[in-house]
UniProtKB/TrEMBL annotation:
This is Protein translocase subunit SecY. Component of the Sec protein translocase complex. Heterotrimer consisting of SecY, SecE and SecG subunits. The heterotrimers can form oligomers, although 1 heterotrimer is thought to be able to translocate proteins. Interacts with the ribosome. Interacts with SecDF, and other proteins may be involved. Interacts with SecA. The central subunit of the protein translocation channel SecYEG. Consists of two halves formed by TMs 1-5 and 6-10. These two domains form a lateral gate at the front which open onto the bilayer between TMs 2 and 7, and are clamped together by SecE at the back. The channel is closed by both a pore ring composed of hydrophobic SecY resides and a short helix (helix 2A) on the extracellular side of the membrane which forms a plug. The plug probably moves laterally to allow the channel to open. The ring and the pore may move independently. It holds the Pfam family SecY. It comes from Demequina mangrovi. It is a multi-pass membrane protein. The gene is secY.
């Protein structure tokens, strides 16, 4: 792999792309450290030293690379854009116009991208106003006696909302520049950077705990095992053979070739885990607004649903992951459409009649590999949390194994993209 990196930097155009990508990531990390106008950064540092994020805020802070609790100009991170992208994909099922644009090729995709940008701005404005309100009310740092926003006049609040919204738009622009002129998917790399930035502090907290050396070694071994399993499953495919019949077009004989449909074991990616975790953070958000004397149902909600180690929480987590895995896979892969396209171009699965029987066969295979993929996601998402509880650690990795899924998935995709560009220059690439 080291020789692969050396070969990449020896190639002038690939070297410029890598340096451009690293430069954009450096700008992104610099923006994380710049506080929003109106925020007392000294008080923020004091509150961070006194309290630690828990529940929903810990998760959101992870995906912003630590910018949320610092109330920086990049406090919202890339999550408004991710939410808007997922919403546009879901709207394709509900709005025929969106599905028509999706089928129109590059022009339709450009229109959908423009809609995604508009929705991102709306989400960013709403989320920034919500987070500023929570910070003013002390929900970000419970127990901290100082005000992180000393001046709460309307013009200061409006400036903060506009700054955070503009920060999200700028992050979106940075991600698009990486996709266009750099290496890999820009949005994914920015999320990768945010998640990776929080790992040193997590390792430090484990090292400083009781039996720190033993716990650090055990966690490292477990993480390596999980990473190996994630790589194995993410690379796994169920290949459906497809044969194309020969046909005459004018005086030429076309077709007669054989190929396959690659169905990944985990076609939904990390989307089911993100959806399931987002829903399970709602009780934690509700608990943030309760006073010192909560009602009985609030106490039950805290003990059985909000607590990550509660059996009911774990059961709901698994069920939601399985549900969203099937739901998102059904949206992104349409067996009827694939069967119709195969029939149109003279393709068929050996032993299966074209048309409806092919669609039923694809749905049969897809439903079964999705079952395995959803259970794999649930195990990976829960394993770090279960291990931390078993070791008696007071800290935990936010979002469970989602961090590992993001790091490994984005890492594999980026390496493949670099390798494909190396192969264009007759290099062997990273993997031999």
């Amino acid at each position: 792999m080291l020789s692969g990196f050396m070969s990449a930097f020896r190639t002038p155009d690939l070297r410029s792309k890598l340096l451009f990508t690293i430069g954009i990531i450096a700008i992104y990390r610099l923006g994380v450290a710049i506080p929003t106008p109106g925020v007392d950064y000294g008080n923020v540092e004091l509150c961070l030293s006194q309290t630690s994020a828990t529940g929903a805020f810990a998760i959101l802070n992870l995906f912003s690379g630590g910018a949320l609790l610092q109330l920086s100009i990049f406090a919202l991170g890339i999550m408004p854009y991710i939410t808007a992208s997922i919403m546009v994909q879901l709207l394709r099922v509900l709005i025929p116009r969106f599905e028509t644009l999706h089928k129109e090729g590059s022009e339709g995709q450009a229109k959908l991208t423009q809609y995604t940008r508009y929705i991102t701005v709306g989400f960013a404005a709403i989320q920034s106003a919500s987070y500023i309100t929570m910070a003013r009310n002390g929900l970000f740092f419970p127990g901290c006696s100082v005000d992180v926003i000393p001046n709460d006049s309307w013009n200061v609040i409006l400036t903060m909302v506009l700054t955070m919204t503009a920060g999200t738009v700028f992050i979106m622009w940075l991600g698009e520049r990486i996709t266009e002129r750099g290496v890999g998917n820009g949005m994914s790399l920015l999320i990768f950077t945010s998640v990776a930035a929080g790992f040193p502090s997590m390792v430090s907290s484990i090292w400083n705990s009781s039996d720190g050396v033993r716990n650090t070694v055990l966690v490292a071994i477990a993480l390596l095992a999980v990473i190996a399993a994630v790589v194995f499953v993410e690379q796994s495919q169920r290949r459906i053979p497809v044969q194309y019949a020969k046909r005459m077009v004018g005086r030429k004989m076309l077709g007669g070739s054989s190929t396959y449909i690659p169905l990944k074991i985990n076609m939904a990616g990390i989307i089911p885990v993100i959806f399931a975790s987002s829903l399970l953070t709602l009780p934690q958000v509700i608990l943030q607004f309760q006073g010192d004397d909560p009602a009985g149902w609030v106490v039950w909600l805290n003990n059985n649903v909000a607590s990550q180690s509660a059996p009911l929480h774990i059961a709901l987590y698994i069920l939601l992951i399985v549900f969203f895995a099937y739901f998102y896979t059904a949206i992104t892969f349409n067996p009827v459409e694939v069967a119709d396209n195969m029939k149109k171009y003279g393709g068929f699965i050996p032993g299966i009649r074209p048309g409806t029987p092919t669609a039923e066969f694809l749905d049969y295979v897809l439903s079964r590999i999705t079952a395995a993929g959803s259970l794999y996601l649930a195990i990976v998402a829960l394993l770090p949390t279960v291990m931390f509880v078993a070791l008696g650690l007071s800290t935990s990795i936010p979002f469970g194994g989602t961090s590992i899924l993001i790091l490994v998935g984005v890492g594999l995709d980026t390496v493949k993209r670099i390798q494909s560009q190396l192969e264009q220059h007759h290099y062997e690439g990273f993997l031999r």
